[in-house]
Amino acid sequence: MTQKKWVYVFNELDQASAYVGGSWDAVRGLLGGKGANLFEMYRIGLPVPPFFTVTTEACNAYLASGEKFPEGMWEQELDALHKIEEASGKKFGDPSNPLLVSCRSGAKFSMPGMMDTVLNIGLNDETVQGMIKLTNNPRFVYDSYRRLIMMFGAVVLGLPDEAFEEPMEAFKHQKGAKADTDLTAEDLKELSEIFKKVVRENKGFDFPQDPIEQLRLATEAVFKSWNGKRAIDYRRAEGIPDNLGTAVNIVTMVFGNMGWDSGTGVAFTRNPSTGERKVFGEYLLNAQGEDVVAGIRNTDPIEKMAETLPEAYNEFMKICEILEKHYRDMQDMEFTIERGKLWMLQTRNGKRTAKAAIKIAVDMANEGLISKEEAVMRVSTKQVDAMLHPQFDENARKAAKKEGRLFATGVNASPGAAVGQVFFDADTAEKKGKEEGLQVIMVRPFTKPDDVHGMLAAKGILTSEGGATSHAAVVARQFGVPCVVGASAIRIDLEKRQMKVGDVVVKEGDWISLDGATGEVFLGKLDLTVPNLEEQQDLLTLLNWADEIARLQVWANADYPKDARRARSYGAKGIGLCRTEHMFFEPERLPIVQRMILAETIEERKKALDELLPFQRSDFEGLFEAMDGYPVIIRLIDPPLHEFMPDEEKLFEEVITMRVKGETKGLAEKEKLLASIRAMHESNPMMGLRGVRLSIYMPEIVEMQVRAIFEAAANCTLRGVKVKPEVMIPLTGTVKELEWIQPRLERIAKQVMSEKGVNFPYKFGTMIEIPRAAVTAGEIARLAEFFSFGTNDLTQMTFGYSRDDAERNFLIKYVEEGILEKNPFQTLDREGVGRLMRMAVEEGRRTRPELEVGICGEHGGDPDSIEFCHLIGQNYVSCSPFRVPVARLAAAQAAIKNR
Amino acid sequence: MTQKKWVYVFNELDQASAYVGGSWDAVRGLLGGKGANLFEMYRIGLPVPPFFTVTTEACNAYLASGEKFPEGMWEQELDALHKIEEASGKKFGDPSNPLLVSCRSGAKFSMPGMMDTVLNIGLNDETVQGMIKLTNNPRFVYDSYRRLIMMFGAVVLGLPDEAFEEPMEAFKHQKGAKADTDLTAEDLKELSEIFKKVVRENKGFDFPQDPIEQLRLATEAVFKSWNGKRAIDYRRAEGIPDNLGTAVNIVTMVFGNMGWDSGTGVAFTRNPSTGERKVFGEYLLNAQGEDVVAGIRNTDPIEKMAETLPEAYNEFMKICEILEKHYRDMQDMEFTIERGKLWMLQTRNGKRTAKAAIKIAVDMANEGLISKEEAVMRVSTKQVDAMLHPQFDENARKAAKKEGRLFATGVNASPGAAVGQVFFDADTAEKKGKEEGLQVIMVRPFTKPDDVHGMLAAKGILTSEGGATSHAAVVARQFGVPCVVGASAIRIDLEKRQMKVGDVVVKEGDWISLDGATGEVFLGKLDLTVPNLEEQQDLLTLLNWADEIARLQVWANADYPKDARRARSYGAKGIGLCRTEHMFFEPERLPIVQRMILAETIEERKKALDELLPFQRSDFEGLFEAMDGYPVIIRLIDPPLHEFMPDEEKLFEEVITMRVKGETKGLAEKEKLLASIRAMHESNPMMGLRGVRLSIYMPEIVEMQVRAIFEAAANCTLRGVKVKPEVMIPLTGTVKELEWIQPRLERIAKQVMSEKGVNFPYKFGTMIEIPRAAVTAGEIARLAEFFSFGTNDLTQMTFGYSRDDAERNFLIKYVEEGILEKNPFQTLDREGVGRLMRMAVEEGRRTRPELEVGICGEHGGDPDSIEFCHLIGQNYVSCSPFRVPVARLAAAQAAIKNR
Question: Catalytic one among A389, A471, A642, A870?
């Protein structure tokens, strides 16, 4: 039996690859991401300092066996050390020509902060002297030495940082040194001794002078760091499995500070902030890597290297091209030049801004480096989203936090940043915003439908109650208004017109800044940057590619013609949800609506409805015109009638007050109105008299609506507009509801078409938002020509969560405790709600193979949910206009991922 | 091709049977129930007047072809007529020896009132003379003749009754006759002429003198009556299919009024009211059947026939025995004796009271006439239910209605009759009922958990709001208190302490009587009859047989030891649901509960919980003792905390009033309490912070409860009681909730057992009442050792119906309009909710084959729902103690039906 191979030397990539079966992913799994890239660079002939890697399997074996190196590992590591001694011509522990190495962890996925690097392993009291001779720079060598002891002490031996920092401060004070740089070579030598004493006193043994012992301990420390608290927390947060383990990379140290023919730098193959196709980086002559990062000296742009180190520069430029072509992605590299010789220390796919990500993806596809599919996969939906909303300047955000201006944090309900003055009610917000032209942030404990006019006039919305699908959140997303909800630390005092967190008071008119993407609320103004879709040619190109690839269409939820126009300009191929009741809330219409509701006879009711008909008809004409050629799904009235009535509590207070004061004028009227509103009261309105139930209870309203829809469609047809109206019946729970209402409505549709003498295609269909509708979808599809999943309500009822309450009460705790992986109102619960959806699609299509299936809940704009919609074979997703670009990308990514 | 056979003569049963494939059910389908029994009686040699039957197929063919007799039918009918002429020795239309026949409809299922019988077909001006000679009774013959014309005119020719009644009244007036009996033979002859004139004037043709024409028209009329409005309405109401059609029975007339050796009667083979095994009936000498029914002369009990017509009597007694043995059920028969010769005119299974049904079933099984299974199937669950509740005397009910004392009608929420004085709040009701010993009917618009003490002290409950699963209804059923809810015509004025329907006022203290089985509310007192299970030996026997047969066990929902004892005495084999929160509402505990809820620190909360622990422990000890040897499922706290708090609206009113009046004393406290209550407010509490969510939010409460359960179980074990506690976690929606809470609770369980040094079997499980729980039951069963379907909530969420609102708002309309076949809160919706339940059982058992599955929702006491529970393989159903006997029978019937 051959012994298992635990250690791979720089030229053994093929063996590692063969061992794991050949895939690059598996190689990364065995050698870690950092290690794998070092091997790969070596393999394609790039200059990498001699190195070897101890595998993740060794780490796992070590941890599994109670922290013992697996059999043969250490011997293999020593063998590998000899091989890099040979390759480098140096010798570990040899005072005359010492080999120094770095020791770094490297897991399959990057885990920053898991463990610090230990540099300069191999230095001891003897090799220090050899290094001084080699470098002629005793200060650098002693500095390296004291750093090794400190880093080793902290990282490997587990001493607290203060154990070194306190004596160092004392020493500097004694020497009269302000900065570390004020210390001389002699001082640093002395400090090394002090640090050695720290180790001895704290650990009871000396800092190991034996380089081999240093290496062994460092290797073990890296292994152990896999189960350190920081690493575990990070894995939890990022969803990285615990069983991967980390590799250990041992790399020959090279020095950029060996004179003016030496240097070090970092660079990207393209500009990570703009995406421009030009190497972007910085370097320092006669310096070490940490000097570039620390910013002690001013770095030079990489271009300048062409003058100072032309040969190395040219070689590096070639390497950039090779690496980008090789990895087919923008690379982020570290390099060092030691006495004119270029060494590559790291390469990896570079992080980039949203803008750069899009430009690079599109450019690379145009250059033929990657396919359009790859380009589509290279950009995240978050990056596209970021391109559509104003954002805070990151430096401004950091500065504000430092200054203690973070006022509160809530649920990130609608992305985008907003700066404005605080107003505490809808009327004032509208007045200040529309009439006075102020930048308004509307602040409320929570919002209601009759607050919408104020919300529309605001740049941002902040509530102290409610969750991601509360009224405020839904409306805000719908209209693309940045919004933070449920910032529960805030106490709003509507009477005093102020809000407080602790002692910090924000009064009406004060400025705040809020970020709907992070949920942060700042005091005062933060600087904003504002992107614009039409000007973003690269993004438009990418989204067109996405449309070619996607199988799902993207439609939009839009209630008004202007929203429909925006949706269309963002690429929507239809309206998946027009909520007709929003039209009822407009100030000139609401009194008619209330009259209609309170009508005591059918005649009175019909009279009020006759007054509403022209309003609705003209709204619908606008929608049809905006969506010329595309389908428009109009949902019949859904909310319970009491939502259109004045606030019960306020009215009750007025009545009580009048009674106590003995005022009688108007009291009887108010009492009557109160009684009417109370008669409409429901214990659980979410599950009450609404949707199709209301239509069956009071069919006159939807009869008017269907007449308005078909009159509008007929008028548009006569004007040459191509209309495709689809009438959607909400809240169906049994096919018998459709059997009751749908034929009556279809009769009206046909009647209007015959009155107007026109013909156009139309559909009648239903929302699937009641669990029972999903369970009996096969029956429902007998009548319904289309399904639209109302996943907000479907999620509410499948989970039994009231969305108005749950996020505030227990959902946050549930997500924190891991009881729910994600907020199911933001990301579709595939296991529960999704299973019902899948049943509905399958059984609905069994009855009616051509059944059109979409989604119009909040989830229609969520990438993970969109993937699920793709998987169950929906025809489209519908989301708020501002989410359309994101959804287009997500639809394409879903198609590619699941080919 | 032989012609289809449309008509069967009395001796052709074998042919009919062969044609339909031999089953009795199919024979009834072809010949109708009445006809089939005539054939059967003939077949077994009983004396039946010669007859023939036109098939239901002929009826269907007639109706399908646009009211044309199918080919050959009429010829077959004339042939058949000849055959009965031969058999009877009489001749149709022969003045010297005329054959007269009756013509009756007879569908597969009895449809009373669908069509009247036409008797004496064959009488005309000529045959009248023959009949007079034969009978020597011209008055009888002319009376028969004028009746024929009248009946024929009304039933066959479609004339309104008044067309005959008005001229008859005028004629009687003219003759000075008060009653019909005052008319002489001569008068009746004259009246025949008048009636013939009525026909001529109204129809434009003469009353058909041709007997064949009479027969043809009567046959057609019976066919047409199948599609008459009355028949269609009846079929709708009874769920009889429209495509069955009716048969037509043509039977030779025999006459009981041909002298003192003739007579007629009706009889049952056993007493239909007590079930006593003795022929029960009445007869009249020298009379026709209608005389018995009309009550013009006093009938004699059947026994007397032994003296007056001993031969016929003996023959009839033999026939009774033959028929009962033959049909293996109690028979309801009509017979006529014509000149000493007994003729059987009808037999059918007799209707009977609940008491008789049970006695007859048990007796017949004991006699070996039927099997125990058949006995179990012979009694309906409604009959068993009727035996357990006080009931109004039916005559008293009829009288009260006649007197206009029916005050209102509502939903029949909890069966049983109650008589008492009205009180309008729980405290008064309790005081009057418990302290003063009055019979109390508690009346409220609706009830809440803190009304329970009043409800328990009441003999009956009446509400003007709410439906069959409102709080009032559920509690009433739970405690077997008769209850009518949602009597929406009633206006309750709590301030004036009165209620009104229109102008009728009932003041506090007035007497009313209500029937929870019919939903009726009467003014004043009605007489009651009160049954008692223990004394009903037959019922006990029947239920024991049911238990032997059933596969489902029947458990009970019981919160208190006394309920558990009752449940056990009613045959419950376990407690399927003990609602621990009911214990929290008791007056001495509620303040502690409120203190616990409002606690600002964990310590304060734990202190309050420590005070509650002994109460709960002693409650549980009582339960375990009562159920010694049987499992007891205890549900951990379920309702949202605000249910334990004072009424928000009332408090708000107090606060406003104090503010307006400028009163400050105690205001701050009230405001603080109001704020606390408001902070708990939820938009949809049904879907809010309750059940396991509350347990995760505030685990201290359930930790206390589990400790109380296990301490109680341990104490009981030490006293020699055999305990089987099962801890039920409510409202689970994801297995992760169980993963969070269950191990903590199991730890406490184990700890208590080890503290007490005892061991007993126990289980932890969950309710399945959230759709998502059903959909992910396979996962949930990893932790849950038992499932209990909470079908109230599961129905609410699967349908999206709030039970507090739906019945009041739209459910009644939905049932009326046929959108819902039945109220899904009363009878399980198999298609939707049931499908989820079936998934849950199948997938739960796939994970855990020994999973115990039950139901504890209201449906656990509903026979149709119990059948479904049987079908999906549940282990038990749990219902209110008072429903246990019903459920036991239903479980057995489900097993028999689905063998």
Answer: A471
